[in-house]
Fold this sequence. Notes:
This protein is an alpha/beta fold. It is globular. Helix content is 36%, strand content 18%. The model is unreliable at 1-6, 12-23 and 68-91 (pLDDT under 50). α3 (58-65) packs parallel to α4 (108-117). 32% of the residues are buried. β3, α2 (35-47) and β4 form a beta-alpha-beta unit. Strands 1-2-4-3-5-6-7 form a 7-stranded mixed β-sheet, with helices on both faces.
Amino acid sequence: xxxxxxxxxxxxxxxxxxxxxxxxxxxxxxxxxxxxxxxxxxxxxxxxxxxxxxxxxxxxxxxxxxxxxxxxxxxxxxxxxxxxxxxxxxxxxxxxxxxxxxxxxxxxxxxxxxxxxxxxxxxxxxxxxxxxxxxxxxxxxxxxxxxxxxxxxxxxxxxxxxxxxxxxxxx
Length: 171
């Protein structure tokens, strides 16, 4: 399904079945301004049995999460910790956000900061990825609360390691 008006696109490998529900399929929001990189990440995640929603920038990601420009919690709809984060796709809960670092309008670092400043979104793990191996950038993102920093191009082994780590965190 593609929602061009919101700039987000939703993909899933197959229709959910009882066996899928038992595995607790992860829903990942993948954010990257480069369509090729976004498609690579999407395909890798889908092949690892993740539901994927893509956004072309940090602003679109925040719109999808229902949190654009929220500096004050009073502007945010009241949600309880057990509630699913409202999304354009209905009641899907985002379990992970994976974002590129270098993007126009809002960098992945700025997106990370906004997510971690939000009382509603702060518990969603955020992975930052970049094609540049800059130690100060990596350290800054990890200090700000990124779960992990990954170098592009992402490989299937990266997604497998990421999925294993997330499943341990959720247990």
